[in-house]
Amino acid sequence: MKKALITLLLFFLPASVTAEPSDYIKFSLGAITGLAIHESGHFIAGEITDTDLHWNSPTRFTFDTKSSRDAAIISSAGILSNMLTTEAILNTKIPKQNWYTIGLLTFSVAQPLFYVFTDQVFHDAPDIETMNDNGFKRDYINTAIVLHSLFSIYRVFHKTDIPLYFKVSEKTIFIELIVHRF
User: Fold this and answer.
1) Mean per-residue pLDDT of the chain
2) What distance in Å separates the CA atoms of residue 125 and residue 128, rounded to the nearest whole number?
3) For the chain, which terminus, N or C, has the lower number of CB atoms within 10 Å?
4) Dihedral angle at the C-alpha atoms of 143, 144, 149, 154, nearest 10 degrees?
């Protein structure tokens, strides 16, 4: 399971660009910010619905809600926060040619996909499970997440100023990301 997450997070890492160690730190800080935004989404939704969240670890929590609507709101808030972050990056003039933004964007696209993967393969995606148990159909949730992520990836490749190039041979897929330095 960890290998799948690492593979997803490394999706945008450069294959041929020389990067300074500080670039990888910036990328990692962007990804950590993405995690903080995701968990903050749950926390804010808990505050809005007047629900106490009991954190079991930095990324796992339990809660008792008054309604299934509140449970669905809290559970969906993390993924929706990731989607809003992606939209903010891709639809505004936020600079995209820096490692921090690339790390944040990578996490914001990859993390919801990771939820779908863990839900489908391991049946261990608590947010999706809670949404499913409270009125949303799991397959519709997963389809919406995958479509948004694929569309976001398409926009990264074709409609933003982050140039990515693919070279495919018989046994390798080479991804090249060029970050311009001025």
Assistant:
1) 79
2) 6
3) C
4) 90
Phi, psi (rounded to 5 degrees) for 35: -65, -45
Distance CA 147, CA 113 (A): 10
pLDDT single digits (tens) 8-59? 445 545 444 566 888 889 999 999 999 999 999 999 999 999 988 887 876 6
Please name the residue that has the structure tokens 């939704």.
45
Give per-residue burial for 134-173: e unless 16+ CB within 10 Å, then b. Answer: bebebeebbeebeebbeebbebbeeebebebeeeeeeeee
Q: Which phi and psi angles does 168 have, rounded to 5°?
A: -115, 130
Predicted local confidence at residue 11, as pLDDT: 52
**Secondary structure class of 80 (helix, strand, coil):** helix
Distance CA 31, CA 109 (A): 10
